[in-house]
Amino acid sequence: MSVPWFSHLVRPELATIEAYVPHAGRFDIRLDANESPQLLSADAHQRVTRALGSSGFNRYPDVNATELRQAIAEHTNSSVDEVLVGAGSDEVIAMLLGALDKPRTKSPRARIVTTTPTFVMYRLSAKVRGIDVVEVPLDAAWNLDVAGMKRAIEFGEPNIIFLATPNNPTGTCMAEDRVRQVIEAAPEALVVLDEAYVAFANTSVAHLRHAYPNVALLGTISKIGFAALRVGWLIGASDLVRELNKVRQPYNIPLPCQRAATLVLRELQDDVRRLVTHVVTERERMTQELQQLGFGVTPSQTNFVWVETKRPATEVFDGLAANGILVRSFAKQGGRLANRLRVTVGTQNENDRFLETVARFA
Ligand SMILES: *Cc1c(COP(=O)(O)O)cnc(C)c1O
Q: What is the pLDDT of residue 1?
């Protein structure tokens, strides 16, 4: 490959990363991206469609997304000036990194601390901004290693600590007392608790926001049936939100998405509850059946299962793919992820087909 003319202009970190690309190709059953299955009632579907199709396309959308932020505030028991809204929590993560990136005392560059494995966007989004990333391995039970986190905080001096709980891809919640210890060890950093999967979990750490000034929460509607709308949020102190708002693109949420997401949060919560019940029931069934087949499955608090294969994970992945079923493999990452697959809970039918097929590769 020849060197492009603009290479002297490119941020050097880009050489170390690749664009986020979901697996290409056509698959009958996609259980790779933690989307929820399409289980909306016909009535709810029609109402979302109507909200998306409403008129007024010649004007810019509400710059403050006031209705939507009000709906998010009601949904999260916060006030509207504590809500920052983004095109998915991905954009909120980008805004955090864009605003809180002043180098601290030890390094010429800002730094974040997070766990490994975890959601890739913390790392990717930091790297493209020239922010250093320290990744602390989770312990053997995929829970927080407090001692490791404390060392990273002391020596790394992070600007932001990102913790996903429940975590992706492990499906585990971080123990609250450990989360507290991390927060208390880092009073000068912002600790971002990402609860993208909280709807499927039996615990939440959202209340820690009131116990500590340096905590903010992330939320999203992507995992509860509305990934296409690209609406996520941060809940934090109003002075933090005011600062973050300065790096937000003024019209970041398209009007149809503002309207539809407001409808989802205000009026479609029965549909969401029905979806969550389906997912949790199916998740437990998949866990049991996979365990009976001899796979290792970590108890999940999310809409996916974290599966340990006995054969090389790529063999199982390829076997499923050859049968039209796409899951996520972590084989490339090696180490203790070498034999791990992440499988999203789908419809009952999709899960049946997955279980039938994966049985041949147990
Ligand atoms: C899927 C996921 C998100 C999603 O973000 P959106 O941009 O809102 O779709 C955020 N955090 C975690 C941990 C996730 O797994």
A: 64
The rounded distance, in Å, linking the Cα atoms of 166 and 145 is: 15
Single-letter residue type at 322: A
Ligand 1: list residues with CB < 6 Å.
34, 88-90, 119, 164, 168, 194, 196, 220, 222-223, 227, 232
List of residues 6+ apart from 330 with CB closer than 8 A: 117, 169, 313, 337, 338, 340, 341, 342
Give 289-314 as a DSSP string. HHHHTT-EEE--SSSEEEEE-SS-HH
Select from 36, 90, 198, 233 the residue to mutate for testing ligand 1; criterion: most ligand atoms less than 8 Å from CB: 90
Low-confidence residues of the chain: pLDDT under 70: 1
The secondary structure of 321-335 as a DSSP string is HHTTEE-EE-GGG-G
CA-nearest residue for atom 5, ligand 1, is 89
Q: What is the pLDDT, as a whole number, of residue 168? A: 98
Do the strands 160-164 and 111-116 form a parallel or antiparallel pair, or are they unpaired?
Answer: parallel
| 176-224 pLDDT, tens digit each | 999 999 999 999 999 999 999 999 999 999 999 999 999 999 999 999 9
Nearest by Cα to 133 from 307, 250, 293, 17: 17
Largest CA distance in the chain: 58
CB 219 within 8 A of CB 232: yes
